[in-house]
Amino acid sequence: MKTLAKIFLVLTVIAFTSCQDKLTEFNVNPNGVDPSTVNPNLLIPTIITATMTEYLENNYQGDVAGVMQYVQKSGWGNGLNKLDWNTERDWASNYSVLRDAKHLYNRAVAEKMEFHQGVATVIRAFQFAYIADSWGDAPYTAALNAPNGGQEDLFPVFDTQESIYKGILQELKNANTLLSKPVGDYKEISQSADVMYGGNPLKWRKLANSLALRYYMRLSGKLPDFAKAGIQEITSNPAQYPIFTGIEDDATMSYIGTTKNDSWPANTVQDVSMSGFDRIQLCAGFRDVLVKFNDPRLEVWFNKARTQIKVSTQYPENDIVVNNVRYLRPEYLAAKNMVIYNPSTWVEDVKAGKTLVDTARFVGMPIASSTGDGSSYNLNPNPVQGGPNVHNSALDDIYKAAKGTLLKARMISYAEVCFIMAEASRKGWSVGGTQKEWYEKGVKASMDTWGVGSAYAAYIAQPGVAFDGTLAQIITQKWIANWTVAHEAWCDWRRTGFPTLAIGPKALRDAMPLRFEYGPNEKGRNNANYKVAIERLVETPFTATDGKDSSWSKFWLLQ
Question: What is the pTM (predicted TM-score) of this model?
Answer without folding.
Answer: 0.93
